[in-house]
């Protein structure tokens, strides 16, 4: 009998509160409310095995949203200082220990998880899914993709599971704006690495992105009453905090606005050009 997996077991005993499946040496209860109509001794039944609230092995004919070795995005239905509880389609919620979270999750959020069996022989969830992500995606450079963020790193960037199954990363230099674990993003493939992993960017190619960036910078200048208190010589971190873009992208955007005659660059800032 395999905990956390679907399997076909044989009916070995019928009782008032259900049927027992397995063999004379090892058996598990399938509760009465889940017993298929007309079932008899010796009949095969496909079930999923997990543990109930009293940590007893139990069978269910309900379809779980997750099994051992698989990945799934699940809803967080409650959270406390010990961990979180996820809806995985069964009567007993799935526990996600705090130590197995790549970022603290809250009620109402979603997270990508897999199953593991803890030291007490109970099924739990973990957000540490890197080792299960595939590297044989069908995507190529410049393809548009959708994925969920499952981890972040100050050193390496943002880690994404494309289609909830393929390994990808937004390199640190391409991380723009606030991105957090659990966010579902739309992005562009910038490279397919030799090992099959994907590099992503949430920004368009430079010509198209330049128009968007210039529009964003212009709105910011207008929000500063027509005078941005720094130029493209500002510290890269300040630019990133203000606009969610790199210094190079900011310089291109300001250059576009300058070329279009919409701004002027002074020693201490960028100002809107007054119409004559």
Task: Describe this protein's structure.
This protein is mainly beta and 276 residues long. The chain has helices at 206-223, 236-243, 247-259; strands at 6-15, 18-22, 27-31, 44-51, 57-60, 72-80, 83-87, 94-97, 110-117, 123-126, 144-153, 157-162, 166-171, 184-192, 198-201, 227-228, 263-266, 269-272. The strands form 4 sheets. A 5-stranded antiparallel sheet has the order 3-2-1-4-5, with no helix packed on it. The chain has a 5-stranded antiparallel sheet with strand order 8-7-6-9-10, with no helix packed on it. A 5-stranded mixed barrel has the order 11-12-13-15-14. Helix 1 (206-223) crosses helix 3. The longest helix is centred in the C-terminal third of the chain and has 18 residues, at 206-223. It is elongated, with a radius of gyration of 27 Å. 25% of the residues are buried.
């Amino acid at each position: 009998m395999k905990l956390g997996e679907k399997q076909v077991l044989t009916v070995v005993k019928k009782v008032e509160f259900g049927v027992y499946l397995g063999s004379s040496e090892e058996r598990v209860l399938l509760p009465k409310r889940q017993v298929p109509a007309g079932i008899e001794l010796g009949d095969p039944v496909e079930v999923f095995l997990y543990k109930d609230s009293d940590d007893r092995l139990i069978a269910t004919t309900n379809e779980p949203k997750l099994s051992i070795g698989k990945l799934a995005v699940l809803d967080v239905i409650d959270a406390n200082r010990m961990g979180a509880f996820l809806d995985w389609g069964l009567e007993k919620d799935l526990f996600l220990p705090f130590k197995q979270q790549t970022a603290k999750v809250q009620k109402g959020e979603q997270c990508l998880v897999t199953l593991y069996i803890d030291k007490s022989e109970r099924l739990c969830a973990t957000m540490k899914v890197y080792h299960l992500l595939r590297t044989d995606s069908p995507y190529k450079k410049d393809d548009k993709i959708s994925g969920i963020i499952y981890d972040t790193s100050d050193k390496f960037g943002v880690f994404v599971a494309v289609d909830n199954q393929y390994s990808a990363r937004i390199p640190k230099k391409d991380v723009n704006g606030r991105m957090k674990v659990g966010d579902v993003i739309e992005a562009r493939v910038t490279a397919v690495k030799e090992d099959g992993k994907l590099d992503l960017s949430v920004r368009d190619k430079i010509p198209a992105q330049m128009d968007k960036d210039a529009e964003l910078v212009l709105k910011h200048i207008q929000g500063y009453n027509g005078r941005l208190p720094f130029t493209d010589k500002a510290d890269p971190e300040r630019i990133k905090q203000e606009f969610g873009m790199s210094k190079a992208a900011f310089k291109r955007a300001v250059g576009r606005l300058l070329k279009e005659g919409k701004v002027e660059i002074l020693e201490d800032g960028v100002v809107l050009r007054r119409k004559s």
